[in-house]
């Protein structure tokens, strides 16, 4: 499958699209920290921030999918679980080692998130369009009513 352009990566639910942009911003920050040879403590903080944001996002996305009665929710939820398990294993390594493991963690996260946004979230976006599910999923009264708030990470 050919990768979609950045603007095409939006699923059409503003809350999720904003979270997707934040995930990408955090990845860019992790890449910059690695290039700048930041201390291991900062690398671990950034990895933890990305993991936390991803978990919050997964919860919100699953809630919205459930509210929309998305038939691919079970598979999507399992993929989120696999990512979380993999990332926690890599973070455990990062506690005991240095830059090489951070680069491994960053590559894992970057590749997984890019593929997931392009493929699985792309399928969800198409399903929303084909089934005329409206943007109100992310507004008060919609499925996202009880979603988490976006997080920010300070240095």
Termini gap: 38 Å
Count of DSSP H/I helices:
5
On the 0 to 100 scale, the average pLDDT is: 78
Q: What is the global morphology?
A: elongated
Please give a structural write-up.
The chain is an all-alpha fold and 155 residues long. The chain has a single domain (13-136), classed as Up-down Bundle (Four Helix Bundle (Hemerythrin (Met), subunit A)). It has helices at residues 14-35, 40-67, 73-96, 99-118, 120-130.
At a glance:
Helix content is 68%, strand content 0%. It is mostly helical.
How is the secondary structure organized here?
Blueprint: H1 14-35, H2 40-67, H3 73-96, H4 99-118, H5 120-130
Helix pairs in contact: 1-2, 1-4, 2-3, 2-4, 3-4, 4-5
């Amino acid at each position: 499958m050919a990768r979609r352009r950045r603007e095409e990566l939006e699923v059409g639910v503003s809350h999720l699209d904003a979270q997707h942009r934040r995930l990408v911003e955090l990845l860019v920050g992790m890449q910059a920290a690695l290039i700048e040879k930041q201390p291991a403590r900062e690398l671990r903080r950034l990895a933890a921030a990305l993991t936390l944001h991803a978990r919050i996002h997964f919860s919100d996305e699953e809630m919205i999918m459930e509210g929309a009665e998305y038939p691919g929710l079970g598979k999507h939820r399992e993929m989120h679980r696999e990512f979380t398990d993999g990332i926690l294993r890599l973070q455990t390594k990062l506690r005991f080692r240095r830059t090489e493991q951070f680069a491994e963690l960053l590559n894992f996260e970057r590749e997984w998130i890019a593929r997931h946004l392009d493929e699985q979230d792309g399928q969800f976006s198409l399903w929303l369009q084909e089934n005329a599910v409206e943007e109100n999923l992310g507004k008060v009264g919609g499925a996202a009513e009880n979603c988490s708030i976006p997080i920010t990470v300070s240095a």
